[in-house]
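Narrative of accomplishments. A recurring question from our advisory board has been how the design workflow behaves on a single, concrete structure rather than in aggregate. To address it, we present the structure tokens for one chain from the evaluation set, followed by the sequence designed for it. No filtering or post-editing was applied between the two.
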């Protein structure tokens, strides 16, 4: 154990924040899992807690393994991963999987171990690394829009459009994060505004089609998206079924008050169908009150601050963009989840990072954190191409890019 601790590198504050969030997650997960046990009749509270613990343990193993990889290696790894991710996303659209009450083409089942893997979570991390690699490559080069179409925007479009049919919110968030990274990475503004215009045009056409003829959109989720948007904009006209979960979440927030009812004493957890994942923040506020909710928000803001500090401290352009590219979406997703609970956003289905129950969402968050910690390690991680080990083909590949 001491040897393991001695080998932990990178930003210690990020390690501490992530460890705190993971440890705290056991309390709301154990409490909210009674919904799965007594309402949905699946397993026991202990079994769900143990499963969550195993997933977090494996997640921390991912963080440990990834943070030992020098940051510049991820240039080459993105080139290897992208041709794998795209076929996986396409294959996922052909596989219908039942997860609890949800049936969708979002997951593939990993053979032998029997775990459902949500390919869009991996694709999001790979895409952000890909974009960071390209932006660092053109940082000091004057390019034309045409020159960036194939190496930058084609992969972005393919990943987003392969995610979109079954996971609109993830596709929208990923597209927004890519635009933010391109802006921070110095991509020419006139070209960036052109892509924003194209995105707004496509989005307008999509939303129009969604409300005019949702049954014509080739996705079984279209009607669900339409109902969620209508419920958010016109809550007074929403059906009881469409608004029920949001109303239960608001009731949980109202019941929490200043200091909450206490650990395990939530009532709304038995009514919220996604109390262990999408709406777990509502359970946290009901049990720990406004103080608990703001405390959790503080730790995510602290994580954001440390990500910015790490990005500012690293030496290479790629490492700076890498840290922002994979780190910012974690905090942004947390804000989206919290905003949904207090009805600032329509329901999106985004889990609360490191808190909600889940498998691949936890692992991919840990993968992203491991990458941030890798960049924050100023030893091996900040080697320049001049020091490339020519016996390592992956390092040679990353150095050439």
């Amino acid at each position: 154990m001491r040897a393991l601790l001695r080998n932990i590198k990178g930003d210690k504050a990020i390690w501490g924040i992530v460890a705190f969030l993971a440890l705290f997650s056991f309390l709301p997960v154990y409490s909210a899992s009674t919904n799965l046990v007594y309402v949905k009749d699946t397993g026991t509270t202990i079994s769900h807690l143990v499963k969550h613990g195993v997933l977090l343990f494996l997640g921390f193993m991912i963080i440990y393994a990834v943070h030992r990889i020098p940051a510049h290696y991820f240039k080459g790894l993105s080139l290897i991963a992208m041709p794998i991710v795209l076929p996986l996303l396409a294959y996922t659209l052909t596989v219908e999987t039942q997860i609890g009450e949800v049936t969708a083409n979002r997951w593939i089942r990993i053979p032998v171990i029997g775990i459902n893997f949500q390919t869009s979570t991996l694709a999001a991390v790979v895409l952000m690394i890909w974009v960071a690699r390209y932006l660092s490559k053109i940082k000091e080069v004057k390019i034309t829009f045409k020159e960036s179409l194939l190496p930058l925007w084609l992969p972005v479009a393919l990943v987003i459009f392969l995610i979109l049919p079954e996971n609109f919110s993830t596709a929208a968030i990923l597209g927004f994060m890519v635009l933010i990274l391109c802006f921070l990475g110095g991509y020419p503004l006139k070209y960036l505004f052109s892509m924003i215009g194209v995105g707004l045009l496509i989005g307008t056409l999509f939303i129009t089609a969604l409300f005019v003829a949702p049954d014509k959109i080739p996705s079984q989720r279209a009607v669900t998206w339409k109902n969620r948007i209508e419920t958010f904009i016109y809550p007074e006209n929403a059906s009881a079924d469409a608004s029920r979960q949001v109303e239960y979440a608001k009731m949980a927030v109202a019941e929490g008050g200043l200091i909450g009812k206490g650990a395990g004493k939530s009532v709304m957890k038995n009514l919220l169908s996604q109390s262990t994942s999408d709406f777990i923040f509502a359970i946290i506020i009901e049990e720990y009150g406004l103080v608990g909710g703001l405390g959790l928000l503080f730790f995510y803001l602290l994580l954001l601050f440390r990500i910015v500090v790490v990005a500012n401290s690293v030496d290479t352009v790629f490492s700076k963009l890498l840290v922002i590219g994979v780190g910012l979406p974690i905090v942004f997703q947390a804000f989206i989840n919290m905003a949904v609970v207090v009805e600032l956003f329509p329901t999106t289905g985004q889990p609360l990072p490191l808190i909600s129950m889940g498998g691949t969402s936890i692992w991919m968050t840990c993968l992203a954190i491991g990458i941030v910690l890798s960049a924050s390690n100023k030893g091996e991680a900040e080697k320049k191409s001049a020091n490339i080990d020519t016996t390592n083909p992956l390092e040679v590949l990353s150095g050439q890019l």
